[in-house]
Hints:
Blueprint: H1 10-24, H2 29-44, E1 65-68, E2 73-75, E3 84-86, H3 88-99, H4 103-106, H5 113-131, H6 136-150
Antiparallel strand pairs: 1-2, 1-3
Amino acid sequence: RFTEPQQSNVSLYRHLVEGLELLDQGHDPDLVRRYFELRLLDAAGFRPELYRCVGCGRDLEPITNRFSAAAGGVLCPDCGDKNRVITVSALKVLRFIQSAPTYNQVARLRVPPGVMRELELLLRDYLRFLLERDLKSTAFLDDLRQLLVRS
């Protein structure tokens, strides 16, 4: 959905192949997804701004900030009071994943389940906003998660 029909995007394809290989090697599926989502956003030209407020341009402080899909990144508390909360921990993880040159560095992360869920929902909302639709893969993965919880 991030490319035009019949238009190739070698970078995006390479990220997809890398993500599938990482999953096949048994890496943490949630961490691989976050890594892939951020690489996808970069390759498609929608890299979220994680260091400066997209409202006023100030450097973000290590406090609870807000995330705006429409603005394309993080807002300081002064600019984003009605947007999704992003905790300090979640912002640090996003920054680390976004700046890591390889997955090997990302694989060392130990992300608490609550923070991982926050990242999942934030990136899901961002992707939904950009694509103007829900992703079918997201619904499939949610269903799969529910099956695993029940068994």
